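Question: I have long wanted to understand how a fold can be written as tokens. Here is the record:
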Amino acid sequence: MKLTLAIAAAFALAAPAAAQKPTNVVPIQLYSYGYAPSPITLRAGVPVTLVFNNVSGIGHTFKAPAFFASSRMVSGMTMQGEVHVIPHQSMSVTVIPARGTYEVHCSHFFHDQLGMHSVIYVR
């Protein structure tokens, strides 16, 4: 009886881990004044963790309101479709993106005009 309970418990604990989809990780570097990679290509309906790493000495944003509005947020957060990353720090969000083409830019004064913009392609 104890063996049966132990086996049942082992299956119960293993089932959620087996049922979870693995998440792809896409590192995105924010620097003065750009993003790498650029453009960003993702797969529709596939969970992805976007890791934003600000390697510069000033703050930057990753503003993509249409992308975040059409994606299902799994973890992390944005503020009005924007991720704020302070100097020399990282942040991440996990989303399930929807098919489409989305513009992204830094919302800080004049950063977009200096070249800090890109495109997200979700196929």
About this structure: The helical segments are 2-19, 65-70. Residues 26 and 50 are 5 Å apart (CA to CA). The longest helix spans residues 2-19.
